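Thread: Newbie trying to understand structure tokens

Hi all, I'm a second-year student working on a class project, and my supervisor (Dr. K.) asked me to get a predicted structure for one chain before our next meeting. I've only ever worked with sequences, so writing a 3D structure as a token string is new to me. If someone could post the tokens and maybe explain what I'm looking at, I'd be very grateful. Here's the chain:
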Amino acid sequence: MSIEIKEVPLLTVWHMRQTVMYPEMTLKAMQLPDDEAGKHLGLYDDGVLCSVVSLFCRGDSLQFRKFATVAHLQGKSYGTKLLQHVFAAAKRDGMQRIWCNARTTALPFYQKFGMQPFGETWLENGHEFIKMQIEL
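---
Reply by user tm_fold:
Sure, no problem. This is what the structure looks like when written as tokens:
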């Protein structure tokens, strides 16, 4: 197993978002208005893309969005490794807070990282979400 985390081209990120998160939607629907301003990381295992995440810095806060792992590779710690990398880099870069809009089904996963839910839940694209954050 040879793990590598590096930047991923946007087209690849959009394909992964569609395949994993919203297969019923168009590729165009996977594009975020501020994608060009973000940093998009992927975790590769022996050259195979397993997970992606999009990062957006706003002041001293880091928001991660569209965090996705290929369905048949979920539960093999690829997402955990990628998020650990993101958290370590955010601390190194002096970020004060990390946050995301999480599917409520993923709450236990994010709580393993010390993230806590805040605010109210909402429905979007057939999924229930809640904001989660951690102060660094």
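A couple of things are worth pointing out once you decode it. Residues 7 and 41 are 4 Å apart (CA to CA). Residues 78-92 form the longest helix (15 residues). Feel free to ask follow-ups in this thread.
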